[in-house]
TrEMBL record:
PANTHER family: HEDGEHOG-INTERACTING PROTEIN (PTHR19328), HIPL1 PROTEIN (PTHR19328:SF13). It comes from the Bacteria. Residues 1-25 form the signal peptide. InterPro entries: 6-blade_b-propeller_TolB-like, Glc/Sorbosone_DH, Quinoprot_gluc/sorb_DH_b-prop. Residues 30-55 are annotated as: Disordered. Keywords: Signal. It comes from Actinocatenispora sera. Pfam families: GSDH. This is Oxidoreductase. Residues 66-361 form the Glucose/Sorbosone dehydrogenase domain.
Length: 385
């Protein structure tokens, strides 16, 4: 699709100002405890840059020849940490104005075991990184999936173990919310009953302190479980109203984008997609798996952006500021870069998107896997209220 055609499509849907300056959430938190919540990391002031003169879409390849990049998280200096699922490496990448840069290997998580969809998955940077220098990783072992904390170059210290593990359905999303707590999206580990069992960590969204303890205010008392009834959660993103959205792989019928509320049951395996059963919370949006299989998620301005594997595209959804979606989702990058996994908002106001063509299900080219820098600019100003 040409940039002119994309601009017309986005403008018609009210999405033309996708990547204007990212506004801060304006949140304030109390003093953090050693193993409790913190405050959002202080990142460089965002700005928008683009090689396009017509307000259209620009995609720049900023890293090449990676091995199944899975998670991306930014340090306070604006550089990114990138996990490689199969190799177990944590890479560091500094974007140089959108030009191609060579990542450096920070360390290899030797405890990570690659098996099918398992390996080194999500990564999150401590909100207090400036003082504690701590990052968090989600990875597979031979027995389970687990979450660990570490200082780069140091030995990971597991804080949550026993998340169900299998060759597929390992989840892996990891991110700090605007409340300063750590959230993780898990899979059912191919045991569908895990999703409805609140004593299991599988098929859940978990909410915890930086010590791996249940966060205060969790809906089920002394439990990490924040929401349940999920099949395989791989993307987490918050809007300016602190609402949480998650992407979830369905089975054969529907992939889902969900608005996550504490204590809610999202239906799996009893329901896939929208259900008439009031016991289950319906998704905001559903997609046919062949057109989606969306993994990563990010919010820029009022736009929810997801990266899709089987669909080999990016979906753009206009949020209404009340926990809903306006109009029909739009999509771009269709089959231009292959399978797309991570999507994160960078400090400069762009989106970083990773390809996943070396994951055993794609058709890699010589430069795969790649990190893309996506800019879609021009048009209406995004409401920052």
């Amino acid at each position: 699709m040409t940039t002119h055609a994309l601009r017309r499509r986005l403008a018609a849907a009210g999405l033309a100002g996708l990547l204007t300056v990212l506004a801060s959430a304006g949140c304030a938190f109390g003093p953090p405890n050693e193993e409790d919540q913190g405050t959002p990391p202080k990142l460089p002031s965002p700005s928008v840059s683009s090689d396009s003169d017509d307000g259209g879409a620009t995609v720049q390849v900023i890293a090449k020849r990676l091995t199944v990049p899975w998670g991306i998280a930014f340090l306070p200096d604006g550089s990114a940490l990138i996990t490689e699922r199969d190799s177990g490496k944590i890479l560091k990448l500094k974007s140089r104005g959108g030009s191609v840069a060579k990542p450096t290997t920070v360390q290899t998580i030797k405890q990570s075991v690659h098996d099918g969809e398992g390996g080194l998955l999500g990564i999150a940077v401590s909100p207090k990184y400036a003082t504690d220098k701590t990052v968090f990783v989600y990875y597979s072992t031979a027995e389970d999936n687990r979450i660990a904390k570490l200082k780069l170059g140091g030995t990971p210290k597991p804080i949550v173990t026993g998340i169900p593990h299998a060759s597929v359905h390992n989840g892996g999303a990891l991110a700090f919310g605007p409340d300063g707590y750590l959230y993780a999206g898990t899979g059912d580990g191919t045991e569908t009953s895990n999703a409805q069992d609140k004593s299991s960590l599988g098929g859940k969204i978990l909410r915890m302190t930086t010590g791996g303890k249940p966060a205060p205010g969790n809906p089920f008392g002394d439990s990490l479980v924040y929401s349940y009834g999920h099949r395989n959660v791989q993307g987490l993103a918050w809007d300016r109203g602190k609402r949480l959205y998650a992407t979830e792989f369905g089975q054969d019928r529907w992939d889902e984008v969900n608005l996550i509320k504490p204590g809610r049951n999202y239906g799996w395996p009893k329901a896939e997609g929208k259900s008439g059963n009031s016991a289950y919370t319906n998704p905001l949006e559903t997609f046919k798996p062949s057109q989606a299989s969306c993994s990563g998620a990010a919010i820029s301005g009022s736009i929810l952006v997801t990266g899709c594997l089987a669909g080999q595209r990016v979906y753009l959804m206009q949020l209404d500021g009340k926990g809903g979606i306006l109009g029909a989702p739009q999509h771009t990058l269709d089959k231009q870069y292959g399978r797309l996994r991570a999507v994160v908002a960078a400090p400069d106001g762009t989106l970083w998107v990773s390809t996943s063509n070396k994951d055993g299900r794609g058709s890699p080219i010589g430069d795969d896997d790649r990190i893309l820098r996506l800019v879609i600019s021009g048009g209406n100003k995004v409401d920052k209220s």
